[in-house]
Write a structure and sequence with these properties.
single chain, 342 residues, alpha/beta, Rossmann fold
């Protein structure tokens, strides 16, 4: 079974170069695109630019709320059960560029110098493009200020958007936000998976990660190969989660994504580079933020708590019966928490 691609919070192993090309706060000064077209090739598509369309769907009626999925590159297959009975809001889900039913720009890369291919990856799938898409969607929805719900990597992406466009965010909900505020990750990252696996499976996982993070071969791979490897990572995560918390995965059937991205699952890390620290920047975000952590998650609460502590109006809440997907595992409790905040 192909599992949902989860957060890759541990790319300290990234070998594409030292510093990344993304600098928080620089994007907004340079970005001046207008309102994108409402419909692309069909009513379920937004056209972001001449080369990119994003698939989208919505749930509910009322005030617009933008949903930002995780991965990177792993769109959720349908609306969140935890929001189905929440009235007064229209939740807009979209597949980020490079994954799912949105435009996937590359099936493979030509034989070319590594920096040239990295520049092509950045131009079409880099972090700046993902953040620009959020701003375009805000304009398309006609909202002066967005309400945003971000899950996992999507929570980190939401925070970066708020750093770029602080006057365009009304409030945010971060569900299991990614341990990516600094790199190398200070709260354990991939070691938490290996530590939970039995010795034989842990050795298999170590062998897998050596191949997975072999960035010398990155541009020799295809979109299909990378999507498969992203799914294998998810397999190890769910195996470790089941060992750590038996029975946890039973509630997660339906989180699998058969449309995970390949190159889009790595592009943001090329943008970020091997070493950075954005933590103090979060103190400049003035909107109210609810930060939700599942107590049964394989990743501990330290990274999630850090978001809440750094954000001036951050509020931390923990859901005792959930792991990484509280909107699936405790839908009624999740709805109540979100409703109270909104």
């Amino acid at each position: 079974m192909n599992r949902l691609l989860l957060l890759l919070p541990f790319l300290a192993l990234l070998s594409c170069g030292g510093e990344g090309v993304y600098r928080p706060g620089e994007l907004a000064r340079a970005f001046s695109a207008g309102i994108p077209e409402q419909n692309g090739t069909g009513p379920d598509y937004w056209r972001m630019d001449e080369n990119t369309e994003l698939y989208h769907f919505s749930q509910g009626e009322g005030r617009n709320v933008l949903m930002i999925h995780g991965g990177p590159g792993a769109p959720f297959p349908g609306p969140w059960p935890g929001l189905e009975r929440l009235e007064g809001y229209r939740f807009h889900y979209y597949h980020q560029r490079g994954c799912g039913r949105s435009t996937v720009p590359f099936s493979d890369f030509p034989r070319a110098p590594f920096p040239k291919n990295a520049a092509r990856l950045e131009d079409r799938l880099g972090l700046s493009r993902q953040l620009e898409d959020i701003e375009r969607i805000r304009r398309l929805l006609g909202e002066e200020k967005l309400i945003i719900i971000g899950h996992s990597f999507g929570g980190f992406l939401a925070v970066l958007y708020a750093l770029e466009f602080p006057d365009r965010v009304e409030r945010m909900i971060l569900v299991e936000p990614a341990d990516m505020l600094a790199m190398p990750p200070p709260h354990g990252g991939m070691n938490q998976i290996e530590a939970a696996l039995p010795p034989v499976l842990a050795q298999e996982y170590k062998k897998f990660t050596r191949e997975y993070f072999n960035y010398g071969k990155f541009f020799k791979r295809t979109e299909e190969e990378l999507a498969y490897l992203n799914g294998r990572y998810g397999d190890f995560y769910f195996a470790a989660l089941e060992i750590r918390s038996p029975g946890s995965t039973a509630a997660l059937e339906g989180t699998a994504s058969s449309v995970s991205g390949g190159f889009s699952g790595h592009a943001p890390f090329f943008s970020l580079g091997r070493s950075y620290d954005y933590r103090e920047m979060l103190r400049s975000i003035g909107c109210p933020v609810l930060v939700i952590h599942g107590a049964k998650d394989l990743y501990g609460p330290e990274a999630t708590r850090e978001y809440a502590e750094l954000l001036p109006k951050g509020v931390y809440t923990e859901m005792a019966g959930s792991s990484h997907f509280p909107f699936m595992e405790e839908p009624e409790a999740f709805r109540s928490v979100v409703e109270d905040f909104l």
